[in-house]
Structure formats: C-alpha cells, structure tokens
Design a protein that fits this description.
Radius of gyration: 23 Å
Number of helices: 15
Number of domains: 3
Distance between the termini: 62 Å
CATH superfamily of the largest domain: P-loop containing nucleotide triphosphate hydrolases
Number of strands: 12
CATH topology of the largest domain: Rossmann fold
Low-confidence stretches: 117-125, 127-131, 257-262, 389-398
Helix content: 40-55%
Largest sheet: 5 strands, parallel
CATH class of the largest domain: Alpha Beta
Shape: globular
C-alpha cells in the first residue's frame, strides 16, 4: 500500500506545481490535494501550500498539534532564511521556497516511500541506546518534534544540516542520532572549530598533500578522508576562518575536496553537519560568516530549545541520566524524591542538559544509597553556583 501525502492548499498558488508533483511521484506515493478541515493524521506527510501567505500558514501550524504527529513541510515564496527558521520553530519539518526548491521538495515527498518501507516506527522510536541520545529524551512538544525531525533528516543522507542551540542543549547528540539512523555506514567524526584556526583547521579537515611544505613532506589525511562514507560534524562553524568557510562551501557545492598544498581535487562522500551556539546571521552582518555558506548549510536546520523551555521533560531526563550515572560509577540506581524533582523544576538551568547531568552526578555521589532527596540536589546545585561565583570573582567583571 502506497504512503499518502496531503497537499493542504491554503492558497491558490502553485496549482501547476502540485499537478506536476502528483505525476512525478505517482508510482510510489499517493498525493491528495485537500482543503482545511480534512483530518490529516492518517497521512505520512503534509505539505502546507502557503504561497505568499506564509505568516498565516505558520500561525495555523502553531495553533494545531498536527506537527507532533505528522511531518509537515511548508511551501512558500519567501527565500529568506528567517522565514525558514520561523517555520521550523513553528513545528514544520522543513520549509521550501518555490519554484527554486522544487527538486528538494520532490525528493522530500519521494522519500516518504522509502520511509514507509523501512522506517515505519522512526518518528516515535529512534531506537538504539537511550543513554547515547539522552538530551532528546522526553515527551514535551519540543522533544517530540526534535525526534521526528531527526528521523526525517536521517533519510536525506547527503543533505547538509545545521544544528543550532545554546551550550549544553545536546547538539552533538542530535548530530550523532541523525548519522546513526541514516543509511551511511562510515564513521561519525567531530572537529571543534574553536580550537583550530587558519591552516590548522584546514589541515585537520581537508588534509595536506605530499610535498605541501617540503619535497619530502608526507601526505596527511584529513577529517574528510577518515570519515569517507560517514558524517563529519563541524562544531561551532561560526568560529571558523572565512578562508576555511570558502573551502567548505566549495565542498558542499561540488562534493570534491582539495588537500592543502598541490593536491588534486578528490571526490568525497561525507555528510556535513555543522553546529553553532551563536547567531550566524549576526556573523554575516559583521563579516565573519559567509552568507553563501549559511544558505548552503541552512537548507535544513534543527533548533534545540533551552531546558527551561522544556521543563516537562525534566522527570524523564533525570531518570535517564541517573540510570546512566549509576551504570558509569557502579552505584545503585537512586530515584528522585518528589521534593527533589520539584527543586529541579524551579532551577533555571543556564547550562541546560549538560548542567542537569553534572548536578545529578554530584547528587548521586554525595548521597547515601537509597532515594535522592532535596538536600543532596540542593547541595549539588549550590556547589556548582559556588564554583561559578569563585570563577567570576577571579576573572573580574565581564
């Protein structure tokens, strides 16, 4: 039985495109053109045809819980990155500007057939070791949408992804989950763009050709050589030099890379996932981020909310983290008391899930066997606050 895709027409725009799309994918997917008011949860994918009325379409999406149950793509005419980001934050799996993104939209719809055959349960269950992806545990709207987005992105094993969010929200976990559930069988490798600058970063990623420095200099493989057939995660891409960004842009456009020195162009098959905790649009304004690179990386974006925005996930997160801590330190599993959980709920968590894990590690190590009570949790939070205050005093005002 073919999977069903709904084109929800909220405007008269794109009528010719939808007619063309129905014919393009008719062998694998059943496409239905619908109007508002039709039940949509039975569909494998919903395409929201917004035309020029993107704002009204996003308002409609925010008012409904459809995106929690079915991937929703918004199709409009605005090519700006801001509109795409607003669509994702409103719950959309993606945003395509037509007619420019027509081939991408066709691929997205056609991919539903593959998903129907091989990933029937992917949207609700990513599988694998839950500890490996603990930052995305939970049942809030945010967590549900992130897991659905991961399962969705895993199907597009060649498309670059940009993962955004504050420090400690789980950007690397999301990148790993996308790789793990994709068809790619090569390794997942990471490089921190903040620790390497200039030619050092280019060396690390692209490698260095034989004879680049001296005639006897041996060739040095780069990250892309090591991760062939897999995924390369570039952490804090906004910190990379503009020269490196130019090289990366060339890679994304040509799927070819040249080692530093006199190396020839080599074809490569590596998926690029970039992460950032900073506003890359501001980087474009001040000249530290290439607009063209941001457009290439931002074809598909995953934004991770701060923990304070998903407090409903705290009980599930805490339980998962405590089980992981017990296994790591060979401790008995100590459940949280109701009062201790209430204390976690009232904390602001500026360090997000990373801070939550650190607090629970300290609480588990400080407490006697049995239930973790408020006193241990309070001591763990206070220990972190005292340490942070000492660091701030030592460094002076900033």
């Amino acid at each position: 039985m073919k999977p069903k895709v709904a084109i929800l027409q909220q405007s008269e725009a794109f009528a010719d495109i939808w007619e063309w799309l129905c014919k393009e994918v008719e062998d694998d997917v059943e496409v239905q053109l619908l109007r508002n008011g039709t039940p949509l949860r039975e569909f494998a994918l919903v395409v929201l045809s917004a035309g020029a009325a993107e704002r009204e379409a996003l308002d409609w999406l925010e008012r409904n819980d459809l995106a929690q149950h079915v991937p929703v793509i918004v199709a409009g005419i605005d090519y700006s990155r801001r509109t795409a980001m607003e669509a994702v934050r409103s719950g959309a799996a993606d945003y395509f500007s037509l007619p420019d993104d027509l081939s991408l939209l066709r691929n997205a719809v056609a991919a539903i057939a593959y998903t129907h055959r091989h990933h029937d349960d992917a949207k609700d269950d990513l599988g694998g070791d839950p500890d490996q992806f603990m930052e995305i545990v939970g049942h809030s709207d945010h967590a549900t949408r992130i897991r659905a987005k991961i399962a969705w992105l895993a199907r597009y094993s060649d498309v670059p992804v940009l993962v955004t969010g504050s420090g400690g929200t789980g950007k690397e976990s999301v990148a790993r989950a996308i790789h793990t559930h994709s068809p790619r069988r090569g390794p997942f490798v990471t490089v921190d763009c903040t620790n390497l600058t200039g030619d050092n970063l280019a060396d690390e990623v692209f490698g260095r050709a034989a004879g680049a420095d001296t005639p006897t200099h041996a060739a040095k493989p780069g990250l892309l050589d090591v991760s062939e057939g897999g995924t390369a995660m570039l952490d804090e891409i906004g910190r990379a030099s503009t020269d490196f960004q130019d090289e990366l842009l060339a890679l994304l456009r040509r799927s070819r890379v040249r080692a530093l020195g006199v190396g020839p162009l080599q074809r490569t098959s590596v998926r690029i996932i970039a992460t950032t905790s900073h506003d890359l649009e501001s980087g474009v304004t001040d000249g530290t981020v290439r607009r063209e690179l941001l457009d290439e990386l931002g074809i598909i974006t995953v934004h991770l909310p701060d923990l304070v925005e998903r407090r409903d996930d705290l009980p599930a997160l805490a339980t998962t983290i405590l089980k992981s801590v017990a296994a790591e330190y060979q401790l008995p599993v100590s459940p949280l008391s109701g009062e201790a959980l209430d204390r976690l709920q009232t904390h602001d968590w500026p360090g997000n899930v990373r801070e939550l894990r650190n607090v629970l590690v300290r609480a588990a190590l400080l407490s006697p066997p049995g239930q973790l009570v408020t006193r241990e949790v309070e001591m763990a939070i206070k220990t972190k606050a005292d340490r942070q205050g000492a660091l701030t005093s030592a460094e002076g005002p900033r």
